[in-house]
Every structure is written in C-alpha cells, then in structure tokens.
C-alpha cells in the first residue's frame, strides 16, 4: 500500500508540474521518458516481484515502430536515451539465442526477423557515422587515437562506443557465412581508430581478422587484411610490431602443405605480408632479422647434427615458404635505408639449403633455391653466385644417361620438394631438370650481359656447359646447351675492344653498352626471352592438367599474380553495394538458425574455455616459430626409420616384462 501511495503522489506532482510549467514538462517528455513513465515501470516491477513467472512477453517484445522512433531520435536530435536503447537492442540481437545467462542485463525480446534485421543493419551501417557526428569529427578527417580524449563529448560517449564494439565483435565470432563476415568487417573498419582506447577489444578484433585472413575465401581474406593493415597503421608502433609478427606466424601455419590447388592462396597470403612489411621499414627490419635468424639457426643445426629429424625441419614446405616470403619482402624494399642488408644472410641460407642433401630426388627444392637467388640478385643489383648451384645438377649421373624409366608424367617443380626414385629415371623429369637449369642459368647471366666483365664472369659456367655437352649422351640436351654457350661472349668482347677507359673509371663502366641495354639488343637477353616464353607455355600446360583452374584456386591465382594494394578507406560505392545486400544477409533464416543454435553455442563456448585454459597452462614462447616440420611428401621412405625406432622402443618394453615376471616368481 505504501508503494502504491508513493506512485499516486508522484503522479499528482507530475500533473501539477504540467499545469505550472508546461514547457519544462514538454522538455521532460523529449529527454527523460523514464521519469514520466515512473508509474508504469514501478507497477510492472511490483507485478514481477509478486508473480515472476507471469511476465507478459508481448509487452516487452521489440517492434519496428520502437526501433524507427529511436533511430529518428538518434539521427535528428542526437538523443542519448534513444541511443542507449538502440545499443541495448543491438546487444540483444547479437546475443540472441545464447542461453538464459545472456539475458540477465537485457530488457528487449526480439521475436521478429524484420526487427532483428533492422537493428543489425542500422547499427553496423550507420552508427559509426553517428558517433563521429556527435563527436564533431568530419568523415574525411583523419583522427589519431590519442586525440579522442581531447574531444569534450568523448567521455560521455565512451560507454556507448564500447558497448557497440563489444557486441559487434561478439556476433562477428558467431558468424559462419562469408558474406556476413565481410559486411561486418567492412563496417567495423572505419571504427578501427577508436579501438586504441579499448586494448582488450582491439586484441579480440585483431585475432578475428587474422583468423579470417588466413582461413577465409577470396574477398573475405582481402577484407580481413585491409582491417589488419589499418590497425597496424593507425594504432601505433606497438600494434604494428604485433601485427608484423602475428601475420608471419599465421602465414607459416598456413603453408604446411603446398599443392597445385593451394599454391595460389599461399602466394596471395605472401603478397599480403609483403604489403604489411612496407608500412614501417624500421619495424619490419627488426622483425625480419629475427625470423631470418631463426631460419639460419635451423639450418645450422641440420648441418652440425646431420640427423633425419634435423633435415626434416629444413626440407619442408613451411621452411621453403618462409624463405620465399623473405626473398619477396627484401626484393620489394631494397636500398641502403631499406631491407637490402638482409639479402646477404638470405643468400647464404639459400646456398646452404640447396646443398644440404645432394641427391637428384631433391632437384625441385634446389631449383626453387636457384629461382629465389636469381630474384634476390636482380632486385638488389648484386652479383650472387647462382651458377654453381645450377651446374652441379648437370654433373649428376642421372642427367647424363638416357632415361630408363619410360616417358613418365610431367613434374611441376613449383609444387614439389622431393620426387620418388622411379621418377628420377623418367624422360619427363630429366627434360624438366635440364630445361629449368638452362633457363635459370640464362636468367643469371642475363643480369650481367651488358657488363664489361661479362666474358670473365661467364668463363667458368660456359666451360662447365661445354663439358656437359661432351659427356651427355642425350642429343636434345646438347642442342640446348650449345645455344646458350654461343651467345653474348663475342658480342661483349667486340664492344670492349674499342673502349678507352680503365676499370677504375666507375662512371664509364656503368655507362658501358647503355644504348644497347635500353634497346635490348644483347643476344643473350633475346635468347632469355625465348626461354621465358617456353617456360611459360610449359607452366600453362601443367596448370591446365592439374585442376589448377578450379573456381576457388583461380580467384586466388589472379590475386597472387599482382601485388596487394589496399585502399586507405573503403570505397563509397562498395559500401553502398553492401547496404543493398545487407537485408539479404541478416535474414529470417539466419535469425531462426541462431534461435535453434543456442545450446550448440553454449557447448562451443565451454570447449573454447577449456582449450584456452589448456593453452594458458602450456604457455607460448613469444617471437618463435617452432612449427616448421616436414610435410609428408614421401612417407614411404620414413617407414624403415620408423620400424627401426619401433623395434628400439619395443626392446626395453620386453625387458621390463621379463623383469616383472621374474619378480613375480620371486614373490611366489
């Protein structure tokens, strides 16, 4: 009774206020509906206290009218009360169907898919712009994270922004549809600048973005990388360093197995890493130096220990993909103030890897090392002795004798590290080896075909080629090698005879054959172009026969053929297309799926918590990539070692059993 009398007294006071000061009463109606609605709210609370199980769901259900009223109040009047209710509805939508514990602090019940769609699309599409409008930040103006604290309204909007980001990141981790994830990431991308004020949410967003980048398909991976790059650029050096380390580790974990289907995707991921490492060269140098040093340590252990396990850590796809990645990074940012000093240790590592196991079965791996060395030499304009790595392959007996294993299938050296023993004896493998050796040797010599010292530089390689022509019994190999021998030496020698400058005159040496270099008249340069076209045709033939033109791999192949260029901000036309598709994304079907998946999500959360506890107990050592293990290209070769190991482990077990039987007899 006392409670009801207080309500009646409050109602009478409000009636008197309405008569005495109608303007103030009208102000309360616009800005403080909760005060005027005290009666109804308190009566509902009293009814709930008396009958907690008889709550009327329809009265608390959210309708389109409610949402549209709040939207108008927020957009036109910047009403904080309406903004609070909209964010409460958004949180209810993001946690929809996830169990009773998620509804403890929620007041809104969403039973309509139209309401659900309206709330999700409006909040994700327009709330960032509304926040910036309330903070008086122009859409085109760049604002640093540290400048937000200087804005007067930021302190008042801080909890609203935090609620929005927390709910959006929560629902992002629950999504499974690629289009929905791409839409949400695009809409969260403009809000990245404020994530600096919420470190926990920033780490959560970064973790989700890296996951979608490394595992997503096509456009989703690109959108996720755009978010990663924006965070690295906008949130300071610490965030950039963290992103640089994490993206490399994610790349290594994604490169465990390489095939004709997965190669384009791995190349695309590598291009993303190259793009990110160009943001700040100083930070990139420190990270690259650390990871290249790890690769060198792994190679040194293999050279000193010389065990099968140590060789496996080098001769695996993760190690080779890491080397190729750093070659791309260093080649992209050369110069005295850039990453060129890292070219020398990289070249040393590549030379050691190519000769670690000198057998013909590892020719594909050695050829990949030679390709990387040529690329590094061309980018840094530095002489790297690639010829010994290539010409050693021609000295193997398998390359001098006619094939005894038949024609065989074509071998793609880009997606193979090791071949089987029968493959080495096939005609297809021999032809691919000799053709690739001559192509890469031509690439190496072409880099210096206009140099005044070319005759001396090519002396030893050409002498070894002549010896190969005499020793080989295969006529087609002789023809290919002779064509390379006869090129360019006479061309440079004749031009050099009329020269009057000395080797000390660096300017004159640099300008030697400048006109011929610009015109491309060198015989070796022209022959190298012919070899490139032949290699391209062979590569295209392999692509067509290995299911390389599947939709998923083709899309990544097109992306991997060019560098990754990320726009500083999303395109307006692209965002407009997203708005047009948004209604199709958060549709009734997804709304019902979330409703049915409540119990499944709870079990997944429990599993995640258990995995997190296990991970915390195990611990993770920072800045180390210890996941470099050999992919099972040839498990058959390891069976003998495994069987021996099994026998070695079984012997102690047998001894233990004998001892236990003797002990039993003694006790008896």
UniProtKB/TrEMBL annotation:
It holds the Pfam family Noc2. Residues 37-60, 586-668 are annotated as: Disordered. Residues 653-668 have a biased composition (Basic residues). It is found in: Nucleus. Residues 619-638 have a biased composition (Acidic residues). GO terms for cellular component: Noc1p-Noc2p complex; Noc2p-Noc3p complex; nucleolus; nucleoplasm. Keywords: Nucleus. One of its GO terms (biological process) is ribosomal large subunit biogenesis. Residues 49-60, 602-616, 639-649 have a biased composition (Basic and acidic residues). InterPro entries: Noc2. PANTHER family: NUCLEOLAR COMPLEX 2 AND RAD4-RELATED, NUCLEOLAR COMPLEX PROTEIN 2 HOMOLOG. Belongs to the NOC2 family. This is Nucleolar complex protein 2 homolog.
């Amino acid at each position: 009774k006392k409670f009801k009398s207080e309500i009646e007294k409050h109602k009478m006071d409000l009636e008197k206020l309405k008569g005495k000061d109608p303007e103030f009463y009208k102000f309360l109606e616009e800005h403080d509906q909760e005060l005027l609605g005290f009666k109804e709210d308190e009566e509902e609370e009293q009814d709930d206290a008396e009958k907690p199980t008889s709550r009327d769901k329809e009265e608390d259900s959210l309708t389109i009218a409610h949402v549209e009223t709040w939207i108008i109040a927020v957009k036109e009047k910047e009403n904080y009360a309406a903004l609070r209710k909209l964010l409460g509805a958004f949180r209810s939508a993001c946690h929809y169907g996830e169990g009773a514990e998620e509804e403890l602090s929620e007041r809104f019940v969403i039973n309509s898919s139209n309401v659900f769609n309206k709330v999700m699309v409006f909040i994700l599409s327009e709330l960032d712009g509304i926040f910036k409008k309330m903070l008086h930040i122009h859409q085109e103006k760049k604002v640093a994270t540290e400048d937000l604290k200087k804005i007067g309204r930021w302190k008042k909007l801080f909890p609203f922004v935090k609620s929005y980001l927390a709910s959006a990141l929560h629902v992002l981790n629950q999504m499974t549809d690629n289009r929905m994830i791409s839409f949400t990431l695009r809409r969260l991308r403009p809000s990245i600048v404020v994530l600096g004020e919420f470190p926990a949410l920033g780490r959560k967003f970064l973790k989700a973005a890296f996951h979608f980048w490394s595992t997503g398909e096509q456009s989703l991976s690109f959108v996720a990388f755009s978010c990663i790059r924006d965070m690295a650029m906008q949130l300071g050096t610490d965030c950039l360093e963290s992103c640089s380390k994490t993206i490399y580790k994610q790349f290594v974990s994604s490169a465990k197995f390489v095939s004709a289907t997965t190669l384009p995707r791995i190349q695309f991921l590598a291009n993303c890493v190259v793009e990110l490492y160009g943001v700040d060269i100083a930070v990139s140098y420190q990270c690259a130096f650390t990871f290249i040093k790890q690769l060198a340590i792994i190679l040194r252990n293999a050279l000193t220990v010389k065990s099968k396990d140590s060789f496996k850590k080098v001769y695996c796809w993760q190690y080779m993909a890491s080397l190729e990645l750093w070659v791309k990074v260093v080649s992209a940012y050369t110069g005295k103030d850039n990453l060129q000093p890292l070219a020398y240790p990289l070249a040393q590592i590549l030379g050691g890897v190519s000769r670690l196991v000198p057998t013909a079965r590892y020719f594909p791996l050695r050829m990949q090392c030679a390709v990387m060395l040529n690329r590094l030499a061309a980018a840094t304009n530095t002489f790297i002795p690639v010829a010994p790595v290539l010409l050693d392959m021609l000295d193997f007996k398998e390359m001098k004798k006619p094939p005894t294993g038949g024609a065989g299938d074509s071998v793609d050296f880009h997606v193979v590290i090791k071949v089987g023993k029968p493959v080495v004896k096939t005609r297809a493998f021999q032809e691919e080896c000799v053709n690739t050796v001559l192509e890469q040797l031509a690439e190496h010599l072409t880099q210096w075909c206009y140099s005044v010292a070319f005759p001396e530089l090519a002396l030893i390689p050409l002498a070894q080629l002549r010896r190969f022509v005499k020793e080989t019994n295969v006529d087609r190999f002789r023809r290919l090698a002779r064509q390379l021998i006869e090129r360019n030496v006479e061309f440079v020698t004749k031009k050099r005879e009329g020269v009057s400058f000395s080797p000390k005159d660096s300017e004159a040496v640099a300008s030697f054959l400048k006109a011929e270099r610009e015109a491309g008249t060198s015989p070796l340069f022209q022959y190298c172009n012919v070899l490139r076209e032949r290699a391209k045709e062979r590569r295209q033939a392999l692509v067509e026969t290995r299911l390389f033109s599947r939709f998923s791999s083709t899309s990544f192949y097109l992306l991997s053929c060019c560098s990754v260029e990320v726009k500083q901000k999303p395109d307006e036309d692209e965002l407009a297309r997203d708005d047009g598709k948004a209604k199709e994304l958060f549709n009734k079907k997804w709304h019902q799926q979330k409703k049915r998946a409540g119990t499944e999500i709870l079990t997944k959360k429990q599993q995640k918590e258990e995995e997190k506890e296990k991970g915390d107990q195990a611990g993770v050592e920072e800045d180390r990539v210890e996941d470099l293990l050999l992919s099972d290209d040839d498990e058959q070769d390891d069976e003998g070692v495994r069987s021996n190991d099994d026998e070695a482990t079984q012997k102690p077990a047998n001894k233990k059993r004998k001892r236990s039987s003797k002990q039993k007899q003694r006790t008896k």
